[in-house]
């Protein structure tokens, strides 16, 4: 019982430590945008009718 518990704990520890840094070295996050309000896009207003 004790041996299987140790083996399970060792396997779990190896699995967790093997997953560290799998995708490559860490990258620095992009800087946060400047505070404020920014509006962009397009707006149209009109009336459509058929006679």
Give the N-terminus to C-terminus distance in angstroms: 88 Å
Number of helices: 1
**Inertia-based shape:** elongated
Briefly note the structural class of the backbone.
mainly alpha
Largest sheet: none
Q: What is the radius of gyration computed over CA atoms, rounded to a whole number of angstroms?
A: 29 Å
User: What portion of the residues fall into strands of 2 or more residues?
Assistant: under 5%
| Overall mean confidence score, pLDDT | 82
- Show unreliable segments: none
Fraction in helix? 25-40%
How many strand elements?
Answer: 0
Order of helices and strands: H
Q: Mind explaining what this structure looks like?
A:
This is Argininosuccinate lyase. Keywords: Signal. It comes from Paracoccus lutimaris. The chain is mostly helical and 51 residues long. It is elongated, with a radius of gyration of 29 Å. The mean pLDDT is 82. 33% of the residues lie in helices and 0% in strands. It is built from one helix and no strands.
List keywords for this structure.
signal; Argininosuccinate lyase; 51 residues; mainly alpha
Q: Topology of this structure?
A:
Layout: H1 2-18
Q: In short, what is this structure?
A:
Residues 1-22 form the signal peptide. With 51 residues, the chain is mainly α.
